[in-house]
Amino acid sequence: MTRYSTLLFILLIISNVVWGIKFDLAATPSNIVARKCISQYVSTGTLVVVTIKVGFGYNQRVDVEITDNSSAHNEYGRKRDIDGETRMPFTTHTDADVSVCFTNTLDDEFRPDPKYHRTIDLDIDVGAEAIDYNALAKAEKLKPIEAELRKLEQVVQEIVDEMEYLRRREARMRDTNESTNERVKWFSLGSVFVLLGLGGWQILYLKKFFQKKRLID
């Protein structure tokens, strides 16, 4: 019973983790593109909710763009001139690092100055944390304990999916290592046979050369 209680406690801690960051974004002229990007790895098919709170700042325009670093360069959202609180939900298309990039453009009639900046409060909720369980409980008329159990079920499923992903990755790495070892083995054997062939050819060549010069019989 104690073991299950400990596991439940750990899952509750995991489920309450929220990844967030707060920083000041300096304003730059329109002819200078200065992007500040925050990245996080997210697996495929995962619900992500990006919540952005932009502080007050006059004569400045904050734009945001959300993409990943996969070969397809998927774009999950783009907004211009955001102000106050903005929520951008999406579901990832592939395993990749998802980047939330900001630019703060200063109006053309103003000169750059350290006083021109806006405070960005960024929260990235991934998987179970991205689901609004209060709305879900109201929609499905769930009791508080049922809603919490639904949340724990989602967290456990994410852990299982992550373990399965790690297992597949380990299998790919093992296959790559075995393939590399096989290639090295055949390359080494080929090198030995080539060296033996060259050695035999050199012996025969030198023997014929010395016989031609009548240095040996």
- The CATH topology label of the domain at 2-130 is Jelly Rolls
Q: SSE order, as H and E?
A: HEEEEEEEEHH
The poorly predicted ranges are 1-17
CATH superfamily of the domain at 2-130: Mitogen Ypm
Question: What would you report as the Rg, rounded to the nearest angstrom?
Answer: 31 Å
Number of strands: 8
Summarize the entry for a quick read:
This is Endoplasmic reticulum vesicle protein 25. Keywords: Coiled coil, Membrane, Signal, Transmembrane, Transmembrane helix. This protein is α+β, with helices and mostly antiparallel strands and 217 residues long.
What does this protein structure show overall?
This protein is an alpha+beta fold and 217 residues long. The protein has a domain at 2-130: Mitogen Ypm (Jelly Rolls). It is 42% helix and 30% strand. It has helices at 2-15, 133-140, 144-212, and strands spanning 19-26, 36-42, 47-54, 60-68, 75-79, 84-91, 96-106, 117-126. It has a 4-stranded antiparallel beta sheet with strand order 1-8-3-6, with no helix packed on it. Strands 2-7-4-5 form a 4-stranded antiparallel beta sheet, with no helix packed on it. A hairpin with a 6-residue loop joins strand 4 (60-68) and strand 5. Helix 1 (2-15) packs across helix 3 (144-212) and helix 2 (133-140) crosses helix 3 (144-212). The longest helix has 69 residues, at 144-212. The chain is elongated, with a radius of gyration of 31 Å. The protein starts with a helix and ends in a 5-residue tail after the last helix.
